[in-house]
Design the sequence.
């Protein structure tokens, strides 16, 4: 059985607090704003995590799992925080992802310890396609 947007928001807020960030750092939407902000819809007993802008849908992820939906939502938040952290701690001549990716994994693990291994796998996939390259930053 699918839970409603208020329950998803409550669970997201709990995870965000557990990771040490302010409640409502993520505000979930159940309808499009039209500016690219993701929103959640409930169709055919599935959660849909949709990005659309000015009426054009450019990404849709679908799952029956609340845990998967929350992972997608929290990934976006964790990446934003991790890249801000990298910007604040930038090291000249080094691929910034060397700082951002471990921070991302740390944030995801703090929100839900079960997500640490999944976050590591996601990063490994990225690095398999686009390895660290410090020469781009020299």
Sequence:
């Amino acid at each position: 059985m699918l839970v409603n947007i208020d329950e998803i928001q409550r669970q997201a807020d709990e995870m965000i607090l557990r990771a040490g960030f302010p409640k409502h750092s993520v505000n979930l939407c159940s309808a499009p704003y039209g500016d690219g902000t993701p929103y959640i819809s409930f169709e055919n007993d599935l959660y849909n995590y949709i990005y659309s802008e000015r009426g054009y849908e450019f990404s849709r992820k679908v799952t029956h799992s609340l845990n998967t939906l929350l992972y997608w939502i929290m990934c976006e938040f964790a990446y934003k925080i991790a890249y801000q952290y990298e910007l604040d701690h930038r090291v000249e001549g080094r691929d910034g992802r060397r700082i951002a990716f471990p921070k991302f994994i740390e944030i995801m693990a703090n929100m839900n310890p079960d997500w640490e291994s999944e976050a590591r796998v996601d990063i490994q996939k990225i690095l398999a396609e686009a390895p660290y390259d410090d020469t781009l930053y020299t």
